[in-house]
Amino acid sequence: xxxxxxxxxxxxxxxxxxxxxxxxxxxxxxxxxxxxxxxxxxxxxxxxxxxxxxxxxxxxxxxxxxxxxxxxxxxxxxxxxxxxxxxxxxxxxxx
Length: 95
Fold this sequence. Notes:
mainly alpha; DNA polymerase, domain 1
């Protein structure tokens, strides 16, 4: 059932304000959700791999795919033997 409200009425202004706030809330939530998913990577799920190690790996290999495909020795050269083993074990479990 359509409502006919005077264009200059306070009621219409209130309804429009509610609509605008609901829309703003939805858009803000969506942007936050999308940006968080862009910032996380599979490396974040590996216990013992912190932000510095993640930065080193991504700056050297450029992508998670290349890290997965790299030889363990090459990964060891970038982050050391112990952490390279953690990464190797993690990707072997996923395979």
